[in-house]
TrEMBL record:
Residues 1-284 form the RmlD-like substrate binding domain. It comes from Massilia terrae. Binds 1 Mg(2+) ion per monomer. The keyword Lyase does not apply. This is dTDP-4-dehydrorhamnose reductase. The lineage of its organism: Bacteria, Pseudomonadati, Pseudomonadota, Betaproteobacteria, Burkholderiales. Keywords: NADP, Oxidoreductase. Belongs to the dTDP-4-dehydrorhamnose reductase family.
Amino acid sequence: MNILLLGASGQVGYELQRSLQGLGDIAAPTREQLDLTDLDRLADGVRALKPALIVNAAAYTAVEQAESEPGLAFRINAEAPAVLAREARALGAAMVHYSTDYVFDGGKNAPYTEDDLAAPLNVYGRSKLAGENAVTESGISHLILRTSWVYGMRGNNFLLAMLKRAREQGELRVVADQFGAPTWCRTVAEISAHLLADANVAGNEWWRCHSGIYHLACAGQTSWHGFAEAIMAAAHIDCRVVPIATSEYPSRAQRPPNSVLDCRKLANISGELPNWQDALQLCMS
Ligand SMILES: NC(=O)C1=CN([C@@H]2O[C@H](COP(=O)(O)OP(=O)(O)OC[C@H]3O[C@@H](n4cnc5c(N)ncnc54)[C@H](OP(=O)(O)O)[C@@H]3O)[C@@H](O)[C@H]2O)C=CC1
Ligand SMILES: Cc1cn([C@H]2C[C@H](O)[C@@H](COP(=O)(O)OP(=O)(O)O[C@H]3O[C@@H](C)C(=O)[C@@H](O)[C@H]3O)O2)c(=O)[nH]c1=O
């Protein structure tokens, strides 16, 4: 099977390169080879590669910057996935597409299920929701995997930002009133690969039964403050982590106060997800 993997230099994409080995021949073009902002060349690139599966881990993920670059965020997060889905449809290919907990407004007092209404608060979230809708509406065999608070030991993420700030500043001030589930990028990749291995064995029947949106995040929940404290503990860094309110941390983008994802739909087909503290320990060891 020919697999087209987009975003292979990103957190999730990097892990996917390894996790998807064995499922088929992976083409993983760089941004220079296939830029998602050039929609015509993107379509041509897909037609040339003729993948049976497109895995789209590429995205515009700069939440703050998206507020001043909505056109670019929508191009990469919504229009490019629409082109990928259109080309997948023409080829009879399936598609895996990643999305975010930031599609929710955070007003719910419980974890969000796939059936809850998405009502994003910021440009990034709106662009990701538009991308989801494009994939869903294309009618192709697809998995939309919504994850949250992704981290790893490379790339841009909260964990590395906290380690850097702790070393430079010796004290952290972190919001304690936004709740979610930190999720290791390797967890996302491994579960994706597990699902795709099942799909490979069962074929079209699997996709007929399982196409749709799934929440894929580590189990449990915490605040960004709780996450920062756990990072310091795991790294054995003695650094004061001061809890602050969202209003004390100036931001252009509004973020959901609660974006914990209920992952039971996914757990039913892939097994229980690891606890976020255990995944963090593994990542940092
Ligand atoms: N990070 C997070 O906390 C979360 C992420 N997600 C979602 O998970 C998915 C993976 O995220 P993550 O791995 O963190 O993303 P990263 O920001 O780590 O990586 C993004 C990837 O997209 C590529 N990319 C960006 N713009 C373009 C472009 N114009 N053309 C081609 N490639 C491009 C980047 O390439 P390059 O290296 O060249 O920039 C990089 O490979 C995304 O869909 C994201 O929305 C969901 C929830 C949380
Ligand atoms: C760096 C820093 C952030 N914060 C706050 C700001 C914000 O409310 C929260 C998280 O900050 P960040 O900017 O690192 O994270 P943010 O970019 O909002 O992270 C999001 O990225 C996108 C891609 C997603 O899809 C989401 O799931 C989520 O992971 O922590 C502090 O309170 N203190 C700090 O020192």
